[in-house]
Amino acid sequence: MSTEISCVLAMMLVLAPGLPLGYAITRSAPLALVVAPLVTALTGTAAIVIMLLLGGSLRAWLPALFLAQYALLLARHTGALSRWQHRLPHRLRPVWRRQRPERVPTSSPADVAWVTLPIVPPFLDALMPPAMWDSNSIWWLHAAYFTHGADFARAALASPALVFSHPDYPPFASAPVSVVWSVFDGYRLYPAQAVSALVTFSAIALLAYAVRAVTSGAPKLLSRLAGAATGLAAWACAPYAVATGMSDHLWSAAFVAAALLLLIGHGWLDRPAVPVLLLSAVALTKNEGLVMVLVLTAAGTLRYRRELRRVIWPLWAPAAAGLFWGVLARHFGAVSDVTGDPRIGPFLAGDEQVWSRFPPTVAALWGQVGTVTTGALIVAVLGAAVLRGRRRGLGLGSDAWLWGLFALYAVILVTNYLTHANGIEWYLATSADRVSLPFALLACASAACWAVVAASRGRGSGTEHTTADPPADITEPRATEPQATEPHTATRRPRNGHRPPG
Amino acid sequence: MPSDDQQRGAHVRRLFDLTIRVCVTAIALATIAFAAQGAYETATADTALLDRSFSPPARTEYLRIRSVRDGLAAEVPSGSRIVFGDAPNEAWCKQRLAEAAMMGAIHVVKNSDTADFRVSCVEVPISVAPGGMRLVVEPVR
Question: Which one of A3, A64, A392, B93 is most buried, counting C-beta atoms within 10 A?
Answer without folding.
Answer: A392
